[in-house]
Amino acid sequence: MASSAAASPASGEPPILPALLLLRTSDASLAAALRQRFRVLDSFASGQPIPAFLAAAAAATDPPRAAVVVAGGVVRVDAAFLDAVPSLRCVVNTGTGVDHVDLHECARRGVAVANSGTVYSVDVADHAVGMLIDLLRRVSAAERFVRRGLWPVQGDYPLGSKLGGKRVGIIGLGSIGSLIAKRLQAFGCVIYYNSRRPKDSVSYKYFPNVLDLASESDVLIVACALNKETRHIINKDVLESLGKDGIIINIGRGANIDEPELIKALKEGRIAGAGLDVFENEPKVPAELQSMNNVVLTPHIAVFTWESKSDMCDNTIANLQAFFSGKPLLTPVLP
What we know:
The chain is an alpha/beta fold. It is 37% helix and 14% strand. It is built from 14 helices and 12 strands. The protein has helices at 28-37, 43-46, 50-58, 79-84, 103-109, 121-137, 139-147, 151-154, 175-186, 210-215, 236-242, 259-267, 287-290, 306-324; strands spanning 19-22, 39-42, 66-69, 90-93, 112-114, 167-171, 190-194, 205-206, 219-222, 247-250, 273-276, 295-297. The strands form 2 sheets. A 7-stranded parallel sheet has the order 8-7-6-9-10-11-12. It has a 5-stranded parallel sheet with strand order 2-1-3-4-5, sandwiched between helices. Helix 11 (236-242) links the parallel strand 9 and strand 10. Helix 6 crosses helix 9. The model is unreliable at 1-5 (pLDDT under 50).
């Protein structure tokens, strides 16, 4: 896959660190960990436009063979990107989703791809369940009610709904979806799911069609990857099938939901509420969503805790070290 991480230096000289493209904003801990082990070419620190930055990196005597990227960042890893830096043989994505990486093009060119694996799964599952409880019990809305001084004026706050007994349809029963299911089972929920194929390892009822899943569910949780098949998998028809008492939670990707249709359904009372951690045009969030009391919004933070950021750093370093040592990647992603 690759030669060893550093050439043997002459006696008394520091080791020659392998070049690495860094194409994402980075906190101090990740940046320091990378610079200890690699010669980091940082696109943000360079101040150059991306095309000029990539051209300079490709023209170097020791051009980079690996890159660190992130979904929603400054680049798409596609044919044009790979043409710009033909020396690349490894791309490590610090997130789970790889909708910004052309996996088939990478495979065709012999470029290995890794992601964060299951680093974030527990935290995202916790966040999804937290948003659902918040919506059903109206926690955030009730908190605003108290802070605005409305309790003494308007009296008791309207009742919410219990979580136990709810029929929850999970779209995408991968690592995150499975953890959500286990947590909600403990609350007494009935679990249904939609995935590319049935899973023999679970006893939950499988729905091959999202429309049918929605019609049988009180809650839909979007936990799938974003690709051509899942873009706007939640559309007008699915929202209609979910019905006026239904709730949507999205911790997948913003474009899994047709956002304008969701806004219309919420405004018209055709569904009861939504919990959204991801949006179609981040960081822009439609004003209509921000003004709704039956919507819980978070700024794409389901993946992030202090613990998960540390684990992400470790996973990124481990994948890069494996690549430069000629070993298999720890968390490879295949087309």
